[in-house]
Amino acid sequence: MEEKVVSFFKELSEAFGPSGFEREPAKLLKDYVSPYCDSVDTDRLGSLLFSKKGSESKPVILLPGHLDEVGFVVSGISKEGYLMFTPVGGWFDQVLLAQRVVVRTRSSNLPGVIASKPPHILPAEERTKVVKQEKMYIDIGAATKEESIEMGVVMGDPIVPDSRFSLIHRPRMEEGKRVGDLALAMGKAFDDRVGALIAAEVVRRLKVENIDHPNTVIGAGTVQEEVGLRGARTTAWLAKPDVCLTLDVDIAYDIPGVDPDKALTKTGMGPSILTFDASMVPNQALKQLVIDVAEECKIPYQLSHMRRGGTDAGAIHISNAGCPSLVFGIPTRHIHSHVGILSIDDVDNLVTLLIEVITRLDPETVEGFTAI
Q1: Among 34, 158, 276, 366, which one is most buried in terms of CB atoms within 10 A?
Q2: Cβ atoms within 10 Å, residue 154
Q3: Which residues of the chain fall below pLDDT 70?
Q4: Is 150 tagged catalytic?
Q5: How far apart are CA 284 and CA 163, in angstroms?
């Protein structure tokens, strides 16, 4: 990945943007991708759409990646000045305690830490119990409610993890021998700023490499995915896609405690192609075309399956009269936490795969996805 692309990924990852507060990452995405687009538009929820026209105006190929991250909002202030908070999106309570956060007020960003009653003063029977989020609070250093208010805090202020982006490198080993190196990114909000990055990179490369494609490609940074795929609905109404290639993260199973036979996707082994999730069964002809292209071009990929949850495709594939859809994922460790880890190679390979697929999505091929 080029240095300027990594730099942009860092900016996107560190940007402040929980569901409903995505303006900062949307502005970054707009500024980055505008030089490579034919047009840039927004819906009235705040999703960003950027298009690159090919030799034909139809079919329309939509590449959505959501801009929001899981976060919190202030739900109250205790008399001692501590902040009560409500999750925005799905959080596992056990990843919260002792983590730094940023509280954004109208005038400033306040550092804080998620805490709870210390174990030293808990009865013995309570020390072994998992602390629920409802029992936690955020300490911003205030001593009274009045001090917190004077610092600018009001109910509804958004909160995100305080986490910095970094690159790490590890040797790639096979049968005990080093066969290369793997670049990994570590940071917050990879779910799903990496999808927005990939959409932008596809459009950028179509432009700078002068790649011919028989369609119109619309990249999108959607909003409020983590709270119900809301931006996906408005984006689909505006774009009216003929094909949707949704870009998101996937679960990386290469962690301790997972049965190797059940480890569907692993970090650095290629992007995933989702064969099923709780919100969408993909168009089978589209899925097979993508697999055939990946094998023809020798691009690594992994097949994935998700019993619970869904992506923006869950809303987009039933928009308008319906839209043949498929979900691509970047296997990512520790999603919905302060720090995720993913492979830069997987990102590069997905960009390449998408470009190869897009060049083959002519009107006749797309019509065949739903022909009976």
Answers
A1: 366
A2: 11
A3: none
A4: no
A5: 39
In terms of CATH, what superfamily is 72-156? Peptidase M42, domain 2 (2.40.30.40)
Q: Where are the beta strands (DSSP E) in the chain?
A: 39-42, 48-53, 60-66, 71-77, 83-88, 100-104, 109-115, 137-139, 158-161, 166-174, 177-187, 216-222, 243-251, 272-274, 302-304, 325-333, 340-343
Q: H or E element: which one contains 345?
A: helix 344-358
DSSP class per residue in 187-202: ES-HHHHHHHHHHHHH
Q: Give yes or no for a contact between 272 and 250, defined as CB atoms under 8 angstroms apart.
A: yes
End-to-end CA distance of the chain: 42
- Output the CA–CA distances (angstroms, integers) from residue 186 to 6, 272, 340, in the order listed: 12, 19, 6
Write down the domain spans for the chain.
Answer: 3-69+164-368, 72-156
**Which stretch of DSSP H or E encloses residue 347?**
helix 344-358
pLDDT of residue 250: 97
> Which residue out of 11, 22, 225, 226 is catalytically annotated?
225
Residue 262's pLDDT is 77
pLDDT for res 5: 96
Give the span between the Cα atoms of 95 and 263, in whole angstroms: 22
Q: From 3.30.565.10, 3.40.630.10, 3.20.20.150, 3.30.2350.10, which CATH number describes the 3-69+164-368 domain?
A: 3.40.630.10
Q: Is 174 exposed, middle or buried (0-12, 13-18, 19+ CB in 10 A)?
A: exposed
Q: How far apart (Å, rounded) are the C-alpha atoms in residues 352 and 364?
A: 23
The C-alpha atoms of residue 247 and residue 348 are separated, in whole angstroms, by: 13
Closest listed residue to residue 114, CA positions, set 142, 92, 133: 133
